[in-house]
Amino acid sequence: MKPLALSAMYAQQERFADGAVFARFAADAGFDAIEISHSTPAAKIEAIAAAGILPVTSFHAPAPYVKRASGRGNTSANLAAVDPDERKAAVDYTLLSIDWAARLGARTLVVHLGQVSDVHEQFEDELAMRRMFDSGTVDEERFSEFRERVIQRRAAEAEPYLVAARQSLEALIQKAEQARIVIGLENRYHYHEIPAPDEYEQLFDGFAIEQVGYWHDVGHAEVLDRLGLVGKRRWLDRWSGRIVGAHLHDVSGIGDHRSPGDGDVDWEYVVAGVAGLAGYTLEINQHQPAEAVAAAPRFLASIGLR
């Protein structure tokens, strides 16, 4: 059977304040490894590693989690920023993640490559779309108008941010290669985030899969599809041959990070697209019940993902 890792996203609970307790839970629930989430502070990472219960197989930048001077977490730092100071801060946080990943023996670094914007928040029109989806009013004409504005704005503004994202990626690959760590560029949850499906071509150009590849997030693909922004099959149809990892989780409405089997994802196309991987990571949020998390490995086996 293929090994399954549980993301430390699930460890964002008081009962897992001690990372060793989370590691024991993951092992008892049937998981074979742990992914360090970008929400994980240094002390918890140290406790997970020191426990020696499960190996850390992947590391999600920009862990360890810290607060920036602005009061926001370091996840807000933009690797695609056109402002050089902001981009440098984002690169530095991710270079630190590479150091941690190497020390813990992780072989893959999951990276969010930033966004088409000087601020972390999604475009206002996308937020309006999401509110309309949740309220069941997507049939109103306004929804299509918001969507068209979102698409046009990103297309008009993207290029300098893509150039900056590529520059950041080059710096990260240079260090990750020395540590024999592969970077996985994850498809994202919001439309303004990088990369869009076609943008991987520009980002991968000149690099081998041993340096950087595609990381598929099931929920992110589903949500953008349900909003009518990016067809969910486009990601794997184009990049399954370059895939280096996957976050598996389920979706209800446009709420993701649910335990696999506790939502309405069409898993058939996912299974076909990620079948070549040696193992998978379950990225389940801290609000899911423990019994659903423990049931997830059995569900994945039932659909052919073990």
Summarize the structure.
By secondary structure, the chain is α/β, with parallel strands linked by helices. The chain has ten helices and ten strands.
What this model shows, in words?
The chain has 306 residues and is an alpha/beta fold. It has a single domain, classed as Divalent-metal-dependent TIM barrel enzymes (TIM Barrel). Helix content is 44%, strand content 14%. It contains ten helices and ten strands. The strands form two sheets. It has an eight-stranded parallel β-barrel with strand order 1-2-3-4-5-6-7-10, surrounded by five helices. The chain has a two-stranded antiparallel sheet with strand order 8-9. 45% of the residues are buried. The mean pLDDT is 97.
Total count of helical runs of at least 4 residues: 10
Order of helices and strands: EHEHEHEHHEHEHHEEEHEH
Biggest sheet, strands in spatial order? 1-2-3-4-5-6-7-10
CATH topology value: TIM Barrel
Detail the poorly predicted runs: none
Count the domains.
Answer: 1
